Amino acid sequence: MNYQIMGETVPAVEFTLSRGESLYTQSGSMSWKTPNIKMETNTRGGIAKGLGRMLAGESLFMNTFTAEAENEQIAFSARVPGCVLPVDLTGSPGVIIQKGAFLCAQPSVDCQITLTKRFSAGLFGGEGFILEKLSGNGLAFLEVDGDKKELELAPGQVIQVDTGNVVAFESTVAYEIETVKGLGNILFGGEGLFLTRLTGPGKVILQTLNFNDFAGRIASLIPGR
């Protein structure tokens, strides 16, 4: 399987598949394909797994695309301005991703829901109690809003992040929510009440665009709101 990432504003990843090679994605992500690629729609793991994905912000059904001839092409596009990031899970302890970050993956990659380990992270984290975990072997592709920032945290190293700017982190990274310190900062700082605290060791992927804030600014300019 070969792929190329094209475009800079709203990018896409285009694959060239050999006969029998497959990719799966959430419903509605495919942009174009050649005729000899078969699509099969199912819950990929059963109704319970599909419902779990819905709670994490993904679709109930997943689409699997399989090439029935050589050199077939298929592409999946980002939904907002940003970039597409390939992640090789081979030998990885697994990657936790925020809802909406999953674009597509090889069938050897498993995508399942995972509960946050701390009640406070689920209650105040902005992503709910449920995130998604990617594991297995092979490539997965993530959708990053805006530009990406990749960090490798050493053991005990901490970074504080606005929750909407977190894309993914390895399962070795501890994830919790902490309160912004200082009443004046809370009331007038404009950064909200909480920050996400990520503690190494492990890799962290951040994004420069908090799409919820971006959408909120657009909504505030709509007449009548």
Question: What can you tell me about this protein's structure?
Answer:
With 225 residues, this protein is mainly beta. The chain has one domain (2-216): Mitochondrial biogenesis AIM24 (Double-stranded beta-helix), CATH 3.60.160.10. Helices cover 14% and strands 47% of the residues. The protein is built from 4 helices and 19 strands. The protein has helices spanning 47-55, 119-124, 183-188, 211-220, and strands spanning 2-6, 12-17, 22-26, 30-33, 37-42, 62-67, 72-77, 82-88, 95-97, 102-105, 109-115, 130-136, 139-145, 148-153, 158-161, 166-170, 174-179, 194-199, 202-207. The strands form 4 sheets. It has a 6-stranded antiparallel beta sheet with strand order 5-6-3-10-13-8, with no helix packed on it. It is globular.
Largest sheet: 6 strands, antiparallel
Low-confidence stretches: 184-190
Strand content: over 45%
What is the rounded Rg?
Answer: 18 Å
Shape: globular
Quaternary organisation of the protein chains = single chain
What is the CATH homology-level superfamily? Mitochondrial biogenesis AIM24
Order of helices and strands: EEEEEHEEEEEEHEEEEEEHEEH
The neighbouring-strand order within the major sheet is 5-6-3-10-13-8
Mean pLDDT reading: 83
Number of helices: 4
